[in-house]
Design a protein that fits this description.
alpha+beta, 12 helices, 18% strand
């Protein structure tokens, strides 16, 4: 291939990566993106930076076809938020990092993460914003295996996830079609598609983390064991859990367990336990009547100084600073 051909191919590849999504081809002509959200009251209350998500009537789902030029200030919510720009880019600021989400890219913001989102200046773009209550499926045992993936925001596009990008994109397109058509059992269908999406994400995540020296047969066995362990940690993170005792519970030596745990979660055992405990404080800190020391002890920390240090490490501020960011305001989601 000549240099000219290579440049032409690169140009075409970049064009394919950024060109607008043809919603008319996906949804059909004359598709109604508005009546499905006609129950919306016009604004969303933010209480202490906590967005009280206004789901569609009697459901646990809200999907927006969003054309607004409005900035959505710093907030968090108990929903999983998925942003998929249809045309033009969209920005998400999380933990002092701004992510520019391009057309067709898929950005996941896990529950409890402080973030702000906004369009580019003078943008005429649109995007889908999915808000989904994960408590509906979080009690499922296998869901614990997804928790490490949902510890931080992440982006999926054609470049970084070529093996699953199209599948994830197609599942999200099916979800919005079901939602906006308001079909019979649409909420149930959306969650069935979401669970399929999580299976794809979880399997891909495990495959990428698993080390090359683990035989394929043992990989499946270990993945099952560690998914069960993550479910156990979800139930007992507030208790005294040591590396030695947990390794013994799993039937491994401390050193073998430590390596495998890092392979399958991306965390050391202690780091994951601390992450899970810090995660639990996100729902407690907005309650001003609860002393921070009490919260620290309630989630399993035996030392307030350790809690303060780790909280700052994970959240980039102290617990009291996190609480002081709280405010009350409202904004429109349309």
């Amino acid at each position: 291939m000549t240099n000219k051909d290579q440049k032409s191919a690169k140009h075409q590849d970049n064009k394919n990566r950024t060109e607008s999504i043809d919603l008319e081809q996906i949804n059909g002509s004359g598709f109604d993106f508005y009546s499905a959200n006609s129950d919306y009251i016009g604004s969303t209350m933010i209480n202490k930076n906590h967005e009280i998500v206004n789901y569609r009537n009697s459901s646990t789902v809200r999907i927006w076809y969003n054309e607004q030029l409005e900035n959505f200030p710093l907030h968090w919510h108990n929903s999983l938020e998925i942003i998929l720009p249809v045309s033009d880019c969209y920005y998400a600021a999380v933990n002092e990092t701004t992510h520019c989400i391009q057309e067709g890219e898929i950005f996941f913001i896990p529950p409890g993460i402080l973030h702000s989102v906004y369009p580019s200046p003078a943008s005429s773009g649109v995007r889908f914003v999915y808000l989904l209550d994960l408590s509906v499926i979080a009690h499922l045992k296998d869901f614990a295996g997804i928790q490490p993936l949902l510890s931080t925001p992440f982006l999926i596009n054609r470049d970084n996830s070529p093996e699953i990008y199209k599948t994830v994109f197609d599942l999200l397109m099916q979800m919005q079609i079901e939602y906006f058509r308001n079909n019979l059992y649409s909420e149930l269908t959306v969650y069935s598609l979401l669970m399929t999406l999580f299976v794809k994400l979880g399997t891909n995540y495990s495959n990428k983390l698993a080390t090359a020296d683990i035989q394929a047969g043992r990989q499946r066995e270990y993945a099952k064991q560690f998914n069960d362990l993550l479910a156990y940690i979800d139930e007992h993170y507030m208790d005294t859990l040591t590396l030695e005792d947990t390794a013994s519970l799993m039937g491994f030596s401390k050193f073998h367990f430590s390596r495998l745990f890092k392979d399958y979660t991306g965390y050391t055992f202690c780091d994951y336990l601390n992450y899970r405990r810090i995660k639990a404080t996100e729902e407690l800190l907005p309650h001003a009547e609860l002393p921070i020391t009490q919260i620290a002890m309630q989630v399993g920390f035996s030392s307030i100084s350790t809690f303060n240090r780790l909280f700052r490490e994970y959240k980039k501020c102290s617990p009291s600073e996190y609480r002081s960011k709280l405010s009350v305001h409202s904004f429109s989601r349309r």
